[in-house]
Design a protein that fits this description.
Keywords: ATP-binding, Membrane, Nucleotide-binding, Signal, Transmembrane, Transmembrane helix, Transport. The structure is a single chain. By secondary structure, this protein is of the alpha/beta class. Among the domains are: about 200 residues, no CATH class; about 35 residues, no CATH class; about 200 residues, P-loop containing nucleotide triphosphate hydrolases (Rossmann fold, 3-Layer(aba) Sandwich); about 240 residues, no CATH class. The chain has 34 helices and 19 strands. The strands form seven sheets. Strands 15-16-17-13-18-19 form a six-stranded mixed beta sheet, with helices on both faces. Helix 29 packs parallel to helix 34. The two termini are about 50 Å apart.
Length: about 1050
């Protein structure tokens, strides 16, 4: 609506049609004043006719505070239930000649609203300085001059009213300065006033008769205005007024608010005494809290039972996997027997064919063949077959042990379930291939099955790299320099070197995770120049930090990764076998059902946590496994156990490389290859572990007795150990390695000498100290900024790379959403104590605000609702931070592994809908029943749900974009700042962007709709003052919901784009 509507004259013009309709109907109802029924019928008929005519004007002028014109007329001026005061006034004289015309009504409302609380109007034709008759006094009115017709619809000219002045009729009010009467609305109490001889005031209207005029008695009511100006005509609280002249005490079991026309029944009869102004419903709030607590306890117990049943189901799945393993082993025995028969038959067939062919060729050849050639194939077969059988016996020895026919030598007990898993897993893929050929039982098919030993295995990936150099894009600092080598499948390579040598950087570059750097050189995958990112579904990367969900068990962590990253065509039983094999190989069987634990809550040990961190990548059956310091913080026994598990993975063709610090001699000898780097990211050695001492011995570097070789080499590269003068200079070791292997050596490395002041490592840093000193601060800042931007771009490109050469089809977004949903639900159930604290704080806030900020009829409870918006926003926003703040690093790992970001985000949001539904109930169960506003609890609940949904989206954005401390600070400040701004700058564009403005407007409108009748002026005045529109209730809720959706989209965008530095 236009800004001009906020002016004082706008409400007056808006109220004009409302009051005028009644006057016209009353004035033109020419019926027998003794017949109440006739008066009522004529009045209603005329009112309905005029209502239809004035409805468009009313909607145009009063649209911001009136929704339904007919309903408002009925609530304000429908006296059909008790028109007695109209009939009584008609008996006194000519009523149409005494009521105000349109011009007088307009003049009154404009004057009263412009002058505020002053109880008089401006001078006019009948009441001015030169003419002030009795009818100009408050509570009095006059009749129009004789012989003059009064046109009630005339909005321009005042009629002359100067005769037959008398007190205003009961049920009407006569303003001071006007000589006409206006009927009081429903909800008002306008009796004839009486003179209080003690105070000299006409009660109950607080005006005084004019002095020196003993014949001028107290008249009727003097004005109807908003409740903040005067509440003289409002039906007092504790009473109800069915008509403007009737006031009735509120009965027991009922309550009556100010301005009531009927009494409202209390929910509990005993809670309302006679003349109660409101009902005490705090007991119902307590009952609602108890009921809600019971429901939550039932949900919690049911969910706990559900988790227990789920665990039992998983245990049955493991038992089924055991049976499958046994059946597979037995099937393997049958297939091996069939292979033996088929091989013998094939050998005999080959002998017969050879014999026949030899006879046809020549007799002499036949004889020679008969003497030496005929027995030769069987002999050859017998010579080859034992080795084949011995291999099968070695492979099949667990089979006989599983079946129980044989026992281990020296053993006295049967094999355990874990050994069954260990063997069965290795055979299950082979048996599937054999079962697919079971339908082809011809001679050639059986022979093919008997001689085909190549069964489907993991894809083997060989990674060769040449002249790999990594340079920061902005600062041009070199992290790696001219690194060449090869990582072979089935081998375990260790990357060692002093701190700052670029060990993790090298493995990150090989895995395609080196972001923010310019990479030069060549990386070949199986001899082809293909992007390593295209194989990320079968590449496992174990970070240095133990990124494991602490509120899940060991098995739940592994099982979730297995379901999300193993091929979708893999059966449930096969996935169970994979997880069981990993648990057994990592020695996690005793703690499989134990919580991993967090900083606050103790769980498994640090070594076990480290092994779980490795197991998360092992369960997805990678072809390449890269580990960043997996043995750091482990004791020698745990390190040995971990490395044995990795060796078993390498036996299946997995390409394994890992960064290791100070391995023991036993661990050192378990590696196949060693990559040794010097400071500056330059290679010193890359080859088999068995030849490293031989190579360095040729350079004059001999490991002393009883000294661990890797420790000695690292001490040399670190400069701790000084070499003899006969040995090569430490600074020349990278150059010597390149020359030894025939690699191309950079020109600056060739020009450098052992005795020069500049070191290779310093040159590998990318700039000399002099150049660094000359570099400007501004240039350094710009370089760092470019590094960060380049890193963000590379991270986005890596995670969004669509090319896939891994030939592995993992579960889609919908199935991953299902898995994420189950995991997130478990986590929230195990955080039920935190949720309980949130609910408790919300309930206490509701009690405090409901008690301190009682509903004010003048502002429709705006103050209490303002505090509600701030409190609920703050508490729910901080609660929403936990959804993402504490799990950013887990998300980054899972996203880098190829899991769906959308499924992760939607599962979190779906689980948080529980809080969106429950938290408003918790708060309103206290606030509503202590505050007791006029709006219904359902209306307040709908608005509060929209508010919680909105602020939860804002909390997501803060949690993802800011660090935890900054996010909490923003969550505490934003609701307060936005509320203050939207209240002070109501008409600004920015205020319309504040969600607090729409939340407060929705609450106030829901409450204001319950104020009608005598409250009409108060409602319209308050709404126009606050800048609200009564038709915007649905709009407010939609805007809040839209804000929630928009902020969720922003949060998801930030989650995908912004990652750790």
């Amino acid at each position: 609506r236009p800004v001009a509507m906020a002016a004082a004259g706008a409400p007056a013009r808006a109220l004009l049609p409302t009051v005028l309709l009644l006057f016209l109907a009353v004035a033109e109802a020419q019926v027998d004043p003794m017949s109440n029924g006739a008066v009522t019928s004529a009045l209603n008929a005329k009112l309905k006719k005029l209502t239809d005519a004035f409805a468009p004007q009313v909607k145009r002028e009063l649209g911001y505070c009136i929704q339904d014109t007919d309903a408002e007329w009925d609530a304000t001026f429908n006296f059909s239930s008790d028109p007695k005061f109209l009939v009584d006034c008609m008996k006194k004289g000519d009523l149409p000649q005494r009521v105000c015309t349109a011009a007088e009504l307009k003049f009154y409302f404009e004057s009263i609203l412009r002058r505020g609380k002053k109880n008089y109007v401006r001078p006019n034709k009948n009441c001015n300085l030169s003419s002030w008759i009795d009818g100009c006094e408050p509570g009095w009115g006059c009749t129009a001059d004789a012989g003059k017709e009064v046109d009630l619809q005339d909005a321009e000219n005042f009629p002359s009213r100067t005769v037959d002045c008398q007190g205003c009729c009961p049920g009407f009010f006569c303003p001071r300065g006007l000589t006409c009467m206006i009927p009081c609305p429903l909800g008002a109490y306008c009796p004839q006033s009486t003179l209080n001889k003690t105070t000299g005031v006409c009660d109950p209207y607080n005006y005084q008769p004019p002095p020196g005029q003993p014949n001028h008695t107290c008249g009727g009511a003097d004005r109807w205005s908003d409740v903040m100006s005067t509440d003289d005509v409002f039906c007092p609280a504790g009473y109800y007024c069915p008509s403007p002249i009737l006031k009735i005490d509120c009965s027991s079991g009922f309550y009556c608010r100010k301005g009531s026309t009927i009494q409202t029944k209390c929910l509990s009869k005993g809670s309302c005494k006679p003349n109660s102004t409101t009902q005490d419903i705090t007991i119902f709030g307590a009952m609602l809290v108890v009921a809600l607590s019971l429901v939550l306890l039932i949900i919690y117990n049911f969910s706990d039972q559900l988790l227990t049943n789920r665990e039992k189901k998983q245990a049955k799945s493991r038992e089924a996997a055991v049976r499958l393993a046994k059946e597979t082993v037995q099937a393997r025995e049958r297939w091996r027997s069939a292979k033996d028969v088929a091989k013998k038959h094939a050998a005999g067939l080959q002998t017969s064919l050879t014999r026949t062919f030899s006879r046809k060729k020549s007799l002499s050849s036949h004889e020679s063949s008969k003497g030496g050639g005929v027995p030769h194939p069987p002999e050859q077969h017998r010579a080859d077959h034992p080795s084949e059988e011995s291999g099968e016996k070695n492979t099949g020895s667990p089979t006989a042990e599983v079946g129980g026919d044989k026992k281990k030598k020296g053993g006295k007990h049967a094999h355990t379930q874990s050994q069954i898993f260990q063997y069965a897993y290795g055979q299950i893929e082979k048996e599937k291939a054999l079962e697919q050929n079971s339908n082809n039982l011809s001679l050639s098919g059986v022979v093919a099955m008997a001689t085909d030993e190549d069964l489907r295995q993991r894809p083997r990936i060989e990674i060769a790299f040449k002249d790999i150099t990594l340079t920061l894009k902005g600062s041009k600092k070199k992290l790696l320099r001219s690194v060449s080598g090869k990582l072979m499948p089935g081998r375990v390579a260790a990357v060692m070197g002093p701190s700052g040598a670029g060990k993790t950087t090298l493995l990150s570059a090989i895995a395609g995770k080196a972001t923010g750097c310019a990479t030069t050189g060549t990386i070949l995958i199986n001899g082809k120049q293909e992007p390593i990112r295209a194989y990320k579904k079968i590449i496992g990367f174990v970070p240095q930090d133990d990124i494991v969900h602490g509120n899940l068990t060991v098995q739940e962590n592994l099982w979730f990764n297995a379901r999300c990253r193993l091929p979708v065509e893999m059966s449930q039983a096969e996935k169970v076998l994979v997880v069981e094999r990993v648990i057994e190989s990592l020695g996690l069987q005793p703690v499989r059902d134990s919580m991993v634990g967090t900083v606050e809550k103790r769980g498994i040990s640090g070594g076990q946590r480290k092994r779980v961190n490795v197991g998360l990548e092992m369960v997805m059956e990678p072809s390449v496994l890269i580990l960043d310091e997996p043995t750091s913080g482990l004791d020698s026994a745990s390190s040995l156990l971990l490395l044995r598990a990795l060796r078993r993975e390498a036996m299946e063709g997995v390409n394994i490389s890992m960064v290791v610090h100070q391995p023991s001699y036993t661990l050192y000898n378990m590696f196949d290859d060693l990559i040794l780097l010097a400071k500056g990211g330059m290679p010193v050695y890359h080859g088999p572990v068995k030849k490293v001492e031989e190579y360095f011995k040729g350079l004059g570097i001999v490991v002393p007795d009883r000294v661990n070789p890797p420790d000695y080499y690292i001490d040399i590269l670190e400069g701790i150990v000084k070499l003899d003068t006969n040995a090569v200079n430490v600074k020349d070791l990278p150059l010597r390695w390149m020359l030894h292997n025939g690699y191309e050596v950079p020109r600056d490395m060739l020009q450098s000498s052992s005795g020069s002041e500049s070191s290779l490592s310093g040159e590998a840093g990318g700039h000399a100290p002099q150049a660094e000193a000359k570099k400007s601060v501004l240039g350094e800042l710009w370089g760092n900024l470019r590094d960060i931007l380049g890193q963000k771009k590379d991270e986005y490109d890596y995670n969004k790379s669509s090319e896939d050469l891994s030939n592995r089809r993992t579960p889609g977004k919908l199935r991953q959403y299902k898995y994420y949903l189950g995991r997130c639900g478990k986590q929230r159930l195990r955080e039920s104590s935190i949720q309980g604290v949130d609910f408790l704080i919300l309930g206490l806030a509701g009690i405090c605000l409901g008690t301190l900020a009682k509903v004010s009829d003048e502002s429709f409870g705006a103050l209490g609702y303002t505090y509600t918006v701030i409190a609920v926003s703050l508490l729910c926003m901080i609660g929403a931070l936990r959804s993402f703040s504490l799990e950013k690093i887990h998300y980054w790992r899972e996203r880098a592994a190829g899991m769906s970001s959308l499924a992760y985000f939607m599962s979190k949001d779906t689980i948080d809908h529980f809080n969106t539904i429950v938290k408003p109930i918790v708060y309103l169960s206290m606030f509503y029943f202590f505050n007791n506003p006029r709006s219904s609890i359902w209306e307040n609940y709908v608005v509060l749900v929209a508010v919680v949904y909105c602020v939860t989206g804002i909390g997501y954005t803060f949690a993802i974009f800011f660090q935890p401390g900054s996010a909490q600070l923003w969550s505490a400040l934003l609701p307060v700042v936005l509320t203050l701004f939207s209240n002070e700058q109501k008409d600004s564009v920015f205020a319309n962007l504040c969600y607090t403005k729409w939340a407060l407007e929705a609450f106030v409108i829901a409450n204001a709709q319950r104020y009608s009748g005598v409250w009409l002026i108060t409602r319209c005045g308050s709404l126009v003052k606050m800048g609200y529109d009564i038709d915007h209730k649905i709009t407010c809720i939609l805007v809040l919901a839209a804000n929630g959706i928009v902020f969720r989209c922003i949060a998801f965008f930030c989650m995908v784009i912004f990652q750790k530095h």
